[in-house]
């Protein structure tokens, strides 16, 4: 007896999956707004769930830290939804070096340990604080910021972003891990040539 | 000798704090894009840090759960930045009832315990799964969704939103905790009058 | 003599059709911002005109109502333009059941008859009123709302949306017309199991 | 017994009215995103309802037509919601002259009569058609368009816009009803001076 | 010794080029947000540089002016970045006729000569001024505006737009250089038929 | 005889100035979308014109360069319009040091001289080139970039931005011209303490 409702309304639901979400098809064309959408017919709950942040990142490296992203490239379920996440693991003495996200604001929540986090505004005003478990801090879009394990135990945090593809520009990698010529670095940063060459040596930069 | 640089460039930084952020002035006028901005001159790091999510929410209630928000109204530092956060505490048997956020997508990360989370799409397709520690799930903007402690221990999750003021419409509260007339509820939900009156009795609804 | 103008300016108009509009190609890839564009060269005025709302919807069903959409999936001319339309027909006693549009605000204009329309805010405040011919009402994005023929004649309304693909989540269909398990419904809505089973029976739900 | 829920959740609803809507306070400060918001506490359903479009516009004028807007300035309930409406009345022979809406796309639905409507794209391609009752046509953002009563009876249409403040620039008023100097009009439109002066005379232009 | 950093972080950079930019692939599908992106792997600096504005435009035409665009169709590097540019050359007596950009605001800077520039608001208020070298003027989105060489020498200006595809609707071309029927023009602009036919004759219009 | 048109349509133009533009009132409240609007009644053409970029900037400083902005704080006419401009003067040997604009993409046009400009992507790929008069280059939002006078004469460029308040974070000023502690700089940039102290000494940093 209710079938008429189903009949009348069901055509509303035929081809309109973009209204709700747009799980990214990493092999399809990509545009300024993100990846192409997979059809809803092929989706399962696993397209909206990601387990890649469940394990502790490997912090056996010089910065004693690991960043594990769940951006749209790793977790296509967030494509087009204006949000993404990453996991930060910081061993004792660990540091997430000075960096920016060109396309997103960031919100950090400390899950374990103590993290000294900070950012610098366009007005060259510095905002930093040591954060304990459960405390949160926001880093406005595009500004230089950093996180340091300021405690005596392993630290864990999750950071969410206001974009599915926030980007990540780590200052030292941008300057010293590519082929940006030493003289350009010197002229545009006022760093000494010896300092530049030392860091290029460590980070693999050429030029 | 460098002072000329400072002199030449410093005027850039005089009155442009809106470029970077807009910490909300909860007492100023509010517009469609959010609260008015506080002047950068009066800001400290504490405007960008919030400690209100550090404590376990009180789950001694019927749903055995608590939602603690850090939206712009609680944490004005996120005003205008396209992001916010909330803490979910679920005691054993706890439930965050069926609800929507009218203005934001949501990204959940399980910190402790096991949570069965799900949502329903416009196409009436149901997506739900039991999530363990470290797993994440995305709930697209505006869709009905829920979270249930599906384990045998207290559960904790953080949920981030793609807006500083995502809104929250809990289905049962919308229907049964206000003065929406019983006959309108009956006509628009097909629920039996007895069922409606029972829930209104519990939730305090009138009309 | 004016030909030089044509010559100089004409190249401006060669490949820039996306500047003005993007009539959807329903067979091309779809992204978060909508469907791919058809080339302007193949377009005619009929790509911008839709006749599918001209006929009265079939209201011979239990809700005595019909919703006929002109979203981008039906009317690709609105793709990317931030707007769409639907037609509501309500026979005497007809009801558009409680529902949300996850991605759009809605603006209703009564063309014929009398319609009692309302919505519920995140603050659980109820706004409803009986509207006569020519009166309009706005339903903010993502909130539960409904329309009831509150008169003694057939009613007609047009509703416009702030998105070409507003989505439509009808509460009863979301809960009772799919495979959402009864125990989850019970836990997350506090409805009685008998009530849930009754409505699942009518609406075809399983699980 | 349920009171603890109310207690735990109620603080969510205290000051967050901007999440759902922002009914415009026409006397408060106005920003790029619209008017300031009225507090939800003072709102009633009448803030979301507008009756100003219910009456036939006065078409006893030279264009035999009337445009009655329900933009945010007339209907503050749409402020910030990305949508607005207007009513078009066209007597026999009535014309809505060539115009643009600088900030919105438009979607027209014919309620009564026959309307010849059209627009011109950036590529100087003309799209126009005679529309009957129930037919709809979309006019992409910012493009010149027009509506003419092409039938033998009074015509009525509603037009919705993808912005609460779409703006309206009527070509003849822009050119001939202000103080734009005749020589500038002549140089920038190639119209003859006699033609310009004639229309300025009729429309009240000076300069 | 630093290699572990590279190892740990490098996977962040694998497939996320959309985070930063989306150089347009003019042969790929186009959506409402712009062209499809080229892969970063194939990009060189020349994708972000355009030389097409370096030469003086040919002003040997009736308007004694030339507009040379660097929109996304000509300069795909700006696709998705919210900005584009054009070069205006005006010989003595040159005029950029009355026009609109349906999708963007415009900012003009005079490089050489003197330019009288102006626009008309929706309120039919005229704003115009003679601008000298180095002066800038903004033309809000979608409004009719013009530029006239008001000096005694060749003039040059650059205009930037708030969109990679601002569109361009030149009033005379829209009315008189296509197949818009003369009677429709007459009815919607109040221009005399003789005037319309004269301009159609010059600009190549039919209909 | 035409007065009826004026009468019927004129009320459209009464209070809707926000539709077209929103000239910033620097003394009014500021929100996430920008400054409050001045009323159109008080505006003149000078609100849309700015002469502050007409003079050569003072390059008698260490970087032999000057940046002169026309952001909303200097030129309130661009408030809310999604665009702004700045003038770059570079004496021989002049350099605009490595910097980002957190909130905007940038489009540079060389007016005089030769400028070596470049940026670094999130993928640590370097894009730089020497640009001659009339050539343009785009710097995507939020990425580190620089400009160097690579010629033997004074250079001049105009840069437009995709926001009225793009922000400006100069790397050396962010690190060395404020009170960011030396040990935090060292830990987050890997620079040697001696290098940090040297640049702090020059730029006036403390801490």
UniProtKB/TrEMBL annotation, chains A, B, C, D, E, F:
The entry's keywords: Apoplast, Disulfide bond, Glycoprotein, Manganese, Metal-binding, Secreted, Signal
A single Gene Ontology CC term: extracellular matrix
Pfam family, one: Cupin_1
Predominant localisation class: secreted
Gene Ontology MF: a single term: manganese ion binding
Alphabetized CDD domains for the sequence: cupin_OxOx
Amino acids binding oxalate: 101, 106
Listed InterPro entries: Cupin_1 (IPR006045), Germin (IPR001929), Germin_Mn-BS (IPR019780), RmlC-like_jellyroll (IPR014710), RmlC_Cupin_sf (IPR011051)
Signal peptide coordinates: 1-18
UniProt: Mn(2+) binding residues: 99, 101, 106, 145
Keyword Glycoprotein (UniProt): yes
Disulphide linkage map: 22-37
Domain Cupin type-1: 51-197
Localization: Secreted, Extracellular space, Apoplast
Family label: Belongs to the germin family.
Protein known as: Germin-like protein
Organism ancestry: Eukaryota, Viridiplantae, Streptophyta, Embryophyta, Tracheophyta
């Amino acid at each position: 007896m209710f079938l008429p409702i189903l009949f009348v309304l069901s055509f509303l639901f035929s081809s309109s999956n973009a209204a709700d979400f747009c799980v990214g098809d990493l092999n399809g064309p990509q545009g300024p707004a993100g990846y192409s959408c997979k059809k809803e017919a092929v989706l399962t709950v696993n397209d909206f769930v990601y387990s890649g942040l469940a394990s502790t990142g490997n912090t056996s490296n010089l910065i004693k830290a690991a960043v594990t992203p769940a951006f749209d490239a790793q977790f296509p379920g967030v494509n087009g939804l204006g949000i993404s996440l990453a996991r930060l693991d910081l061993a004792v003495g660990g540091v997430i070096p000075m960096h920016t996200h060109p396309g997103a604001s960031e919100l950090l929540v400390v899950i374990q340990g103590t993290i000294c986090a900070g950012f610098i505004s366009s007005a060259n005003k510095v905002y930093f604080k040591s954060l304990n478990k459960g405390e949160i801090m926001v880093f406005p879009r595009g500004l230089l910021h950093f996180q340091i394990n300021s405690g005596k135990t392993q630290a864990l945090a999750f950071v969410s972003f206001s974009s599915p593809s926030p980007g990540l520009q780590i200052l030292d990698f941008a300057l010293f891990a590519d082929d940006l010529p030493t003289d350009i670095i010197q002229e545009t940063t006022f760093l000494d040539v010896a300092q530049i060459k030392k860091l290029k040596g460590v980070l693999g930069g050429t030029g």
